[in-house]
Design brief:
With 164 residues, the chain is an alpha+beta fold. 32% of the residues lie in helices and 18% in strands. The strands form 4 sheets. The chain has a two-stranded antiparallel ribbon with strand order 1-4. The structure holds protoporphyrin IX containing FE. It is a single-pass membrane protein.
Length: 164
């Protein structure tokens, strides 16, 4: 176990996870979920009566500046030594309907990023484009970009790979 933790690849993996979590937070692909109150629920000064439908708006949770200072900024470092408290990071929902594909989804994002970063260069055509927030956080120009394939890198042996 210790050899995994002190392995440089593990450190790189943890850094990668921060980029993925920050992307999930900022973009919030799933905007919201619906729930129904099964009993009267007291929430602070409010009562949600039994039978009412509740719309949970995830972006407000992910953009709460008390949990995420300067929330509109993409900042993977905010995840350094930071574990959000229950209910404040909900890219995959919560409770009994939590997305069962969450680990697979993160793995897919990481595999995509790995190959994309190693093999391609993306140059945005309008780097100053405004950001729009509905339905998702994204550049208003839909991220128009020129994508260039890079020269293939030489294949390294296992030890050389770990030094990178
Ligand atoms: C970035 C990718 C994904 C995001 C952001 C996402 C997000 C969500 C969210 C927010 C829910 C609703 C949870 C709730 O009601 O509390 C959900 C449900 C679900 N997701 Fe995902 N999901 C993703 C990828 C996947 C993948 C890859 C699979 C399957 C391979 C998957 C399968 C499901 C299923 C079956 C449900 C319904 C669960 C239920 O109602 O019990 N999702 N997802």
């Amino acid at each position: 176990m210790l050899s995994i933790i002190f392995n440089p690849s593990f450190h790189l993996f943890m850094q990668f996870m921060k980029v993925v979590d920050e992307t999930l937070r900022l973009v919030t692909f799933s905007l919201m979920v619906f729930r129904e109150a099964k009993t009267d629920v007291n929430m602070g000064d409010y009562i949600i009566p039994k039978g009412w439908k509740v719309l949970t708006w995830f972006r407000s949770v992910h953009f709460d500046s008390e949990t995420y200072p300067n929330p509109r900024q993409f900042n993977p470092s905010r995840w350094d030594n930071f574990t959000p408290k229950a209910g404040s990071f909900l890219p995959f929902g919560a409770g009994s309907r939590l997305c069962p594909g969450n680990d697979l989804a993160k793995l897919e994002i990481m595999i995509f990023l790995h190959h994309f970063l190693l093999n391609y260069q993306l140059e945005r055509l309008n780097p100053e484009s405004k950001v729009s927030y509905l339905p998702h956080t994204r550049p208003a120009d839909n991220c128009l970009a020129r994508i260039k394939k890079l020269q293939p890198r030489p294949v390294l042996n296992k030890e050389e790979n770990w030094k990178m």
